[in-house]
Amino acid sequence: MPNQAAFFDRLAASVADLPIPLAHALTAGNGFTHDGLYFLAYCLPLALPVALAAWLFRWLSDVDGPIPKAVTDRLFLWPVVFTAVSIPSFPVMTQDIWFSALWGEEIVRGQNPYYVPFTPEQAAAFPFDEVPAMMTYGPLWAVVSAGVMALSGGNVWVTGLLFKLLLAGAWIGGLAIIRHIGRTHDEATAAAGLVAFGWLPIGHIYSAGEAHNDMAMVVLMMLWLMRLSAGDRAGPLALAASAACKYTSAALVSVDLLYRLGKSRNMDFRGRLTAYLLRGIPAAAFFLAVLFLFYRSPAFFDAVRGMSGWQWLQPADIVRVAERLLGIDMAPLRWLVRGAFAGFALWTLAALYRRPTAENAWKAATAVMAAVVFGLSTHLWPWFMLWPLALAALVPSWWFSRWIFGVAALAPFAVVPFWRYEDGFDPFYTKTLTALPLYAGATLFMVWMLDRKDRAAVAAWAASLPGRLRIARAHRS
């Protein structure tokens, strides 16, 4: 990575005269080129907060009596501190922040990044070593990126700081919304939601640390949910803005539609649908206005379509592991695994329509975004887990939310072999096999984090299983 190496060489030279051994740590010849030290340096700082978050979550599940408001406020404060500490960090594993910077710089120069890729010469101004690419993010994020680059004047340090502050603010805003919505139920729900979303390292690392734009989408998605019960135009407008940052949250229109239709059953269907469409006109107008700032032809989506060939860390990859071991093709089973998430989402949407409560809306939104992440998407980056995790944090006692918590806790570890050994190794071992411990571990996490009552029920079921199997064998014989 010559551009990144050059950046650190300049940084090392600028501190070479300081009376600390910092310059050596910034060069390519430091000890972290050793595999053992690399994994230790990456995994140990992740493992400690993950273990603490899991313990806190289980402790909150087992607490007898109400949770004091002061506890919830402390659980909110510490993630904010973690975020502030993460802001000075350099994006080590991915360089998405510089994609946003380069695409924003193109817009400032009068180019359309959805049709014209940045050049190697433009990339050389940043610690960035990816091949030229066209923009994959939504048009609202393109506008934001252009604004950041106009303010920074192309300065690497100012650019990085502005993106990080913007996304750190979005993440803290998401935390505040989770606390606010949780408190409409009780303090225990707010506290558990803050732990689920705020105490796992993927939040502050991938927002303030590496500056992925996912939190811009997520905070607007949470604003939509906060306004959902009000039935005003602000909710759909927030959802449209979310989808204009990153298209995936557009799937939540299904939740919004069924919630509103279920709430207005006293009207005839035509009247309900007309009222819904009128309510959504400002949101649709906003989305289209932002889209057509850049849209010129269907090639606008070519860069997004290009990512559909990526394949790693999906639940369906567990089937691929079995295929490799058994030497047979099990494509129908892979599709069944993907379809199971869509089927579960449809089941929660049906439950929402029958009983349009806020809690059912949160569950349906969680299931829909999980279907996007685990069923529709062909690959899983750890920061994708922010999409369903923020929603799952609103219903932390739900078993599916706890499974999502487990996946979000373990995903940053599962992707390490791919990042470390992307070149020169069989992709089966770096991209596919790691799905097995990821999802098996998440399932164990889910069971371990059940409350006392649910754990007792699972233990009783497991204890009775051998007897049931003997009865089944007797019937067969």
UniProtKB/TrEMBL annotation:
Protein name, as recorded: Alpha-1,6-mannosyltransferase
One matching Pfam family: MptA_B_family
Keyword list, A-Z: Membrane, Plasmid, Transmembrane, Transmembrane helix
Keyword Ion transport part of the UniProt annotation: no
Transmembrane parts of this sequence: 36-55, 75-93, 165-182, 188-208, 237-261, 273-295, 335-353, 365-383, 403-421, 433-450
Organism: Azospirillum oryzae
Signal peptide: none
